[in-house]
Amino acid sequence: MDGVWVPIALFAMIAAIVIVPSWLKSKERKEMQASLRASIEKGQQLPPEVIDALTRQNIRPVATASRDLRTGVIMLAVALGIGLTFGILGYNYDEDILGFGAWAAIPGTIGVAFIILSFFNKNKD
After folding, report:
1. 117: closest CA among 75, 63, 78, 80?
2. 15: three-class secondary structure by DSSP
3. In this structure, is the dihedral angle defined by the CA atoms of residues 14, 20, 26 and 28, taken in order, positive or negative?
4. Domain residue ranges in the chain
5. CA distance to 72, 87, 92, 101, per residue, from 78 (Å)
6. Are 107 and 78 in contact, with CB atoms under 8 Å apart?
7. Could you tell me if 102 and 87 are in contact, meaning their C-beta atoms sit under 8 angstroms apart?
8. What is the pTM of this model?
9. What is the largest CA-CA distance in the chain?
């Protein structure tokens, strides 16, 4: 029974990382809408700053070449960190842990794709 808790905890952690932030953001939006609705029902005017803040939240930033390049470099750094970590662990402990360093290929490949995408992106800074 002890071996069952490890995969359950892993998937629960992944679900919590994905679900909890979106749930909290949804809860915050509901509270803001309720307070705005109450102020409108009382006849109060909404300041232009509030309207700007509400519309600004829904606008996604435009993908630019520098943003793609920055994302690619960060992903390559993550891949390098993963590779070096498992390389050093495998070298120091003489265990067959070097194979786990292959997981560095995933963020590394995504990083290379972002860097290539930065050269083809028409939105230059």
Report:
1. 63
2. helix
3. negative
4. 1-59, 62-125
5. 10, 14, 21, 12
6. yes
7. no
8. 0.59
9. 73
